């Protein structure tokens, strides 16, 4: 629900390592396209007094209010969210729900992909194996296979399919399709989000002070305290 872009140096670092097409300048048009398409990116219309207080304290300590979508990302800002009319606007809701009944779209729930089938000679993926309810299934493709299993499962699935360090795959009796350093050099960003404050006058959203009018405002317009993520 919270939305932000990665730092431009992340992308430029990937490009400098030889991943052509991944520089910040090259990926920016795709961010702009996504942010103005079906998944709406916006700032919350409801704010408690505490938000302005935090920004003011930040300025007193020498930090400035920033636009999180600019290159300079050191500072404080009002968070952007993928919400629409006070409700979470997920990729599933925005992209999948409107087309889920199309005849040429098949969705397999509760399924786990176990292997990508790759021709050892042409190095071309031609199918996918997956399990559902304990039963193994195979799907063949005529076009593309998009691997989008996350930062952990994607390299795992590649290695199960024969793409990875030769010594590691052979130790597990997995036939090697291509020996690559898949799974190495994985990094994540350091982060800390559990900041807590003691306030004399909270000024936050207090459930026991909500009113029927506020609830009606949310139901009717998608605004007010109940629209806060």
UniProtKB/TrEMBL annotation:
SUPFAM superfamilies membership: FAD/NAD(P)-binding domain
Residue ranges constituting the Glucose-methanol-choline oxidoreductase N-terminal domain according to the UniProt record: 1-190
Molecular-function GO terms, alphabetical: flavin adenine dinucleotide binding; oxidoreductase activity, acting on CH-OH group of donors
One Pfam family this sequence matches: GMC_oxred_N
Family: Belongs to the GMC oxidoreductase family.
Protein name: Glucose dehydrogenase [FAD, quinone]
Source species: Culex pipiens
